[in-house]
């Protein structure tokens, strides 16, 4: 990769890395704080956190869809139109966030009971956590929409300040609420909602000062929803897979689901950090295609795939070196440590492959190739991850069987994405695809 291309990617990826890492890093702090309350609160957080990952998933869909559309308009030389994409995405975010917060007040109990199985004490605690944490959903989705349009106009520095500031505040608030103020598990949920609300307010302020019209434009929102539909279906395949993995882990016992919470949150942390390369890909590839530079977009795609793999190897080395230390940050229970070590070799081995997969996701999202991504993900989930997870349950294969299913999922996705990259069919020029 040329020095110029590397510098362009790094200038976008490094600030995005901090933004992407801030939320899962807060979740890891949350897990560590709650983990020392005992096995039951940690298991409840595992259930509640998995359900609330639906909101984070909706936010990622909104951010990624907005980035691609805004980047193409920005690449064509129309910054105001790029920001207008952010305005309409923010209206969609507000509506979806309020609906999710209200729905969770009713659905928290049944969802927690379904995932926890026979562990009724865990289900009750998880439902209480969910009802409070869901109040932060509007802020979370508004922040996602703001991240999307800012990435599209290649501004990753303001999101860095907004997200990092809100999460540092909440990471400091969480242990105070949980321990000295005696709120326990509820304190974790309050801190979570505070961080998301503060972040959402900051992003709303940023779009207001841009000076573009703020009224809703149904036609543009419909176009965004059409793109979001394919990303939503793709995301549903992810959610079905990871919710099933948590449900199966819960049926192997409290120690297994607690260890699954630790390793899965660490996996999400690494995945989102690796997504920094994908964010750069979305912005640069979208801008190149918006400017009609198809050859540059294809070249960027190949180079970014290599960068993703290199970053994945780096994370694998760090995670492998921390095997004997990191689980102890989250729980002092020897049974939980033992189960975490079952998943650890899978965790380390999959990171280099995941680095390439996430980078190529970014390339194709930036190109607006959402339909292909939808179909490829469904095939990998329905044909790989989900059958493997429930087979692990039937065979009583434990946490190792669950992570073997994740490995199959990653390998299938890698094969389809590399085939698509090589074909070049995704590189279609134009201001909006």
TrEMBL record:
InterPro entries the record matches: DinF-like, MATE_fam
Superkingdom field: Bacteria
Compartments (UniProt record): Membrane
Membrane topology: Multi-pass membrane protein
A Pfam family hit: MatE
Listed transmembrane segments: 45-65, 86-108, 128-150, 162-181, 193-214, 235-260, 266-292, 304-330, 342-360, 372-393, 399-418
Keyword Membrane included in the entry's annotation: yes
Keywords for this protein: Membrane, Transmembrane, Transmembrane helix
Family: Belongs to the multi antimicrobial extrusion (MATE) (TC 2.A.66.1) family.
Name under which the protein is recorded: MATE family efflux transporter
Organism: Phytohabitans aurantiacus
């Amino acid at each position: 990769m040329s020095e110029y291309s590397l510098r362009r990617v790094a200038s976008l990826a490094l600030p995005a890395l901090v933004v992407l890492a801030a939320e899962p890093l807060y979740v890891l702090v949350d897990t560590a704080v709650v983990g020392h309350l005992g096995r039951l609160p940690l298991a409840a957080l595992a259930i509640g956190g998995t359900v609330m990952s639906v909101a984070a998933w909706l936010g990622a869909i909104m951010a990624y869809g907005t980035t691609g559309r805004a980047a193409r308009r920005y690449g064509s030389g129309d910054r105001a139109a790029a920001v207008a994409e952010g305005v309409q995405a923010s209206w969609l975010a507000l509506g979806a966030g309020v609906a999710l917060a209200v729905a969770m007040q009713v659905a928290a109990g049944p969802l927690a009971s379904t995932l926890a199985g026979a562990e009724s004490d865990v289900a009750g605690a998880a439902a209480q956590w969910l009802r409070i944490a869901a109040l932060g959903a509007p802020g979370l989705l508004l922040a996602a929409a703001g991240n999307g349009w800012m990435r599209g106009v290649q501004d990753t520095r303001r999101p860095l300040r907004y997200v990092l500031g809100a999460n540092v505040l909440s990471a400091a608030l969480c242990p105070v609420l949980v321990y000295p103020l005696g709120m326990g598990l509820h304190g974790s949920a309050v801190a979570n909602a505070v961080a998301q609300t503060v972040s959402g307010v900051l992003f709303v302020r940023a779009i207001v000062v841009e000076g573009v019209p703020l009224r809703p434009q149904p036609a543009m929102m419909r176009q965004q929803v059409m793109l979001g539909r394919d990303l939503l279906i793709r995301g549903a395949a992810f959610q079905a897979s990871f919710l099933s993995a948590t449900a199966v882990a819960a049926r192997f016992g409290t120690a297994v689901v607690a260890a699954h919470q630790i390793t899965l949150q660490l996996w999400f942390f690494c995945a989102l950090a690796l997504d920094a390369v994908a964010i750069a890909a979305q912005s640069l590839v979208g801008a190149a295609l918006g400017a009609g530079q198809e050859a540059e977009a294809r070249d960027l795609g190949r180079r970014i795939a290599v960068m993703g793999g290199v970053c994945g190897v780096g994370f694998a080395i760090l995670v492998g070196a921390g095997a004997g230390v990191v689980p102890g940050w989250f729980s002092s229970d020897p049974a939980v440590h033992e189960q975490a070590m079952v998943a650890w070799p899978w965790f380390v081995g999959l990171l280099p492959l995941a680095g390439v997969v996430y980078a190529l996701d970014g390339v194709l999202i930036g190109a607006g190739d959402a339909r292909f991504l939808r179909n490829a993900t469904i095939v990998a989930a329905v044909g790989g991850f989900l059958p493997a997870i429930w087979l692990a349950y039937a065979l009583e294969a434990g946490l190792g069987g669950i992570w073997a299913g994740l490995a199959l999922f990653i390998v299938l996705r890698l094969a389809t994405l590399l085939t698509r990259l090589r074909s070049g069919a995704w590189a279609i020029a134009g201001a909006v695809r």
